[in-house]
Amino acid sequence: MTRRVVLHVGTPKTGTSYVQDVLFRNREPLAEAGIRYPAERFDAHFLAALDLMNLPWGGLEAEAIGAWDRLAAQARSHDGTTIISHEILAHASPTQTGRALESLGHRWDAAPGEQETEVHVVVSVRDLVRQVPAEWQENVKHRATLSYGEFLAQVRDPERRSRVASWFWAVQEIPAILERWAHDLPPEHVHVVTVPPSGTAPEVLWGRFSRALGLDGVDLDLDATRANPSLGVPETALIRRINRAANDRLAPPDYRPLIRETLAHRTLAERRDSPRLALPPDAHPWFADLAQAWIAAVEEGGYDVIGDLQELAGAPERPDYADPDDPDPSQVADAAVDAISGLALEAARLRAEEHRLHEELAEARRALERAYLRPSYRLREKIVQTLERSRPGRVVMGGYRRLRGRNSSSA
Amino acid sequence: MAPPGAPDPGLAWGWVAALRAGSTVPWARWRESGAAAPATARDLPSAQQLELVRRINLADAAAPTRAGLVERVITASATGRGLPERSIVGAVPERTWGWAPVDPADLHDSDLLGVAATLVAQDLVAADLAARSSGRQRSVSAPGVAVARRARHRMLRRRGGRQVVGDPWLAWTVRDELLRTGRPLAPPGDPGREGRPVVVVGQDLATMLVGAWTARAFDGGAPSWERWLGSGPGSAVPRPVDLVRSARRWSEVVGAERVLLAPDPTLLPIALNLPARARRRLAPPYVSADGVDLARRVSAPLGLLVERGERRRILRRVLLPVLGADLVRHPAPGLGLPDSRQAWVARRAQRMRDDLVGARYPVVGDLQALVPEHDRHRPPGVVPDASGVLGLSVRLLLAPQSPTSHPSPKEMTR
Fold first, then answer.
1. Cβ of A411 and B180 within 8 Å?
2. Considering only residues 130 to 149 of chain B, which have any Cβ-Cβ distance to chain A shorter than 8 Å?
3. Residues facing A4 on adjacent strands
């Protein structure tokens, strides 16, 4: 059997969480079909991507040490197809993509028929009309306080020196991602999956992914539970205000479960009637021109396009554009009421958990007290208390403690 | 060969070969008269990598460690989300998308530091591992010694020891010295043995600010000096050096009479009930402004190689001695406050002094020591400079010795 690796490298916000959830939960049926999705935890490929790209990520990087090499070794040891998927791989530099491909068994100076591993690269892409506001929203859900206007200005700055712009273009500039990952692969091994317009049935996108990843004909459970839900204009504006007010006092380990998960994903994302984020009318033509240049570049590459490249042009300007930097106050207030309710429910859950832990602690204390009642402990305690009551006794205790210190090696 | 003016990757590969051999010719000159060479890898190294190689060659083309270091630079990638790898102008076609290609000589020094700091971090981990295996670092030389050390520190940090808080860099030095000499320390947050004061150590506010950022850089995860100085809400003093807040917090736990202020480092032996000769050992190690900034920059890639506690230990126990040794041959100024912050510091220090005087805590020394005085004998501090930090990192990368063969930070201050 030919060793084959299908490497799905992004881009973010193109249904990747759904794809990864389906792959993770269907590892067994995939294995029966000769396809390996090597992951012992849901975020295994995320950790591998962090490791490959030397990316710090809120403390997770410590868990990522060595993760890419382990993943690549698993792929190399499988005589069949291995799928690797994470959207932040779009960020990889040429040095990192070269290292990744080599570690999977691809040699840059070998002819296609002589490769140890047949590598396929999959890039899923969505129009900038949706990607630009989605990236700003992701920034806000990761503690950012910059306004949408500031975000757009930084993204459109030709120098791209800001952290925001640097990341945005690294993970969204489709022709550059394709070149970094696939310039030495046969174009027919490079699969560009386009995300259909809003309102299209979800099965359409899955069908495209299924073809790109080589899953057609495999019986899979598609009822996935993970997604990265979107927020509307007032909800995103509210989170940004919370970031401005609480960032200094809310530690990163608390931010993720409380603000990003409880508030944004589990509470505010449920509000579907508020206005959606969009490109402002004055920015729309700039991004539309860029999209046309990208479509031409992808066409020129001769890649295997699954979907329709013209979908990258995106929807026309919205006549009812709602500015998240100047949201409707009553809509923000409504969102805030839902936010308070959601956080109150979470606080109640945590209080119940605290009560349970108190009970456990009390039981542990009672067990400890029973242990203290042993005669040998009581004797030692009495000796120490007696010595501490008199000056000579304290001197003896001090000498004993110093002696214990001096008998050990120093740091 | 490409037609005149057309992008010529072969010429760039020729430059890579020349740089590998020790050339210091910049890319612009190589384009005029250099030779082409075949590709030796999938992608051309980035402009950052190749310019860093040229700087290494400029620093010491004859260094025996140079060739190995150059290969490491050529295959390394920077850490984090900073500037991406840039392609070289004239080596790749101009396109309507992507970052524009650059002349490597036009890159900022800070652009080269991403790769350099990553390699320094790798060297520190390697030096630490070498020290562990050779037994030079007593702390981790063998399983038995490590267990004994941990047990002893647990014992010394038990409830019943003394608590030292305040200026983070000074307090760390003091705590370290107390541990070294076998004196029990209370664990963080614990007031310590009844009857013993909680000692709040400090010095003039300008020095404390420098020390607080230094401590943060050697913990890992510090923002830049300018950003840290300006990051406090309003005009408040950053929390780590807010002695008023610290003293008040501890007085609520143990009572004001058990909070002992020690605002003058020269009187620390008295405050800590130590012999006078201990004074020298209680002085924090000197680090240049560029050295602190290098520690800050190295901490990010180091965090990708080791866990958080190990990162702090390696920064303080491995990097700090190396920086001290480098200072012997390359003296460099220490960190200082920008002129624009001097008046603010004087105002805040005076207010801190007044608040502490009003609170009537026991004091060893004079609280006026918190207010910075103009001292014409003391060299003025500077802010870190990317060029100096890059030069320092190149020296460390080229150094033939293992970093841990240098003296310890304590020995540097004696």
1. yes
2. 138-139, 145, 148-149
3. A81, A118
pLDDT at res. B2: 63
Q: Let me know how long chain A is.
A: 411
In this complex, is the C-beta atom of B105 within 8 Å of any C-beta atom belonging to chain A?
no
Q: H helices of A173-283, where?
A: 174-182, 202-213, 233-246, 252-255
Residue A262 is assigned to a structural domain of this protein:
no
Distance CA B164, CA B159 (A): 13
In a domain, A100, yes or no: yes
Q: Do A95 and B46 touch (CB under 8 A)?
A: yes
B364 touches B264 (CB < 8 A): yes
| B182 contacts A411? CB cut-off 8 A | no
For B77, which of A54, A169, A294 is closest by C-beta distance? A54
Cβ <8 Å between A65 and B305: yes
**Helix B289-303 crosses helix B205-217 at what angle (to 10 degrees)?**
30
Question: Within its chain, how far is the Cα of A367 from the centroid?
Answer: 43
Chain B residue closest to A161 (CA)? Answer: B83
The residue ranges of every structural domain in chain B are 9-89+100-107, 130-288+303-384+397-413
| Contact assignment for B183 to A108 by CB distance below 8 Å | no
3-state secondary structure of B125: helix
Q: What's the number of domains chain A is made of?
A: 1
Closest to A119 measured CA to CA, from A81, A69, A74: A81
Q: Which of residues 250-289 of B touch A (CB under 8 A)?
A: none
Task: Read off the pTM.
Answer: 0.83
Phi and psi at A328, nearest 5°, equal -70, 120
Task: Mutate one of A50, A91, A95 to test the B interface: name it (highest B CB count within 10 A).
Answer: A95
- Chain A: residue nearest B303 by CA? A62
Contact residues for A383 (Cβ-Cβ < 8 A; gap 6+): none
Which residues on adjacent β-strands are paired with residue A36?
A: A82
User: Hey, are the CB atoms on A95 and B179 less than 8 Å from each other?
Assistant: no
Tell me which residue of A61, A44, A42 sits closest to A53, measured CA to CA: A61
Is A401 domain-assigned?
Answer: no
* End-to-end CA, chain A: 57
Q: Which helix (H) or strand (E) holds B163?
A: strand B163-166
CA–CA dist A169, A15 (Å, integer): 19
Question: Which pLDDT does position A288 carry in this prediction?
Answer: 95
Closest residue in A to B73 (Cα) is A95
> What distance in Å separates the CA atoms of residue A96 and residue B77, rounded to the nearest whole number?
7
Q: What is the mean pLDDT of each run of 10 residues along chain A (411 residues)?
A: 89 94 96 96 95 85 89 95 97 95 94 89 97 96 95 94 92 96 96 95 94 95 75 96 91 89 93 93 95 96 97 92 96 97 96 96 88 78 84 85 57 32
A110: domain range? Answer: 4-126+170-230+276-314
Reply yes or no on whether the pLDDT at B137 is more than 60: no
Where residue A106 falls (left for φ over 0; alpha for ψ -120 to 50; beta otherwise) is beta
Q: Does B345 touch chain A (CB under 8 A)?
A: no
CB burial class (10 A; 0-12, 13-18, 19+) of residue B385?
middle
What does the buried/exposed string (b/e) look like for B200-210 if buried means 16 or more CB atoms within 10 Å of the residue's CB?
bbbbbbbbbbb
Predicted pLDDT of residue A407: 46
Q: CA of A158: how far to CAs of A169, B367, B395, in Å?
A: 11, 53, 35
The residue of chain A with its CA nearest to that of B300 is A56
- Chain B contact set for A166 (CB, 8 A): 81-84
CATH no. for residue A121? 3.40.50
Q: Look at residue A269 and tell me if it is in a domain.
A: no
CA distances from residue A353 to A360, B28, B55, B181, B410 in whole angstroms, order as listed: 11, 66, 58, 44, 47
- A289: its two tokens: 């021109």
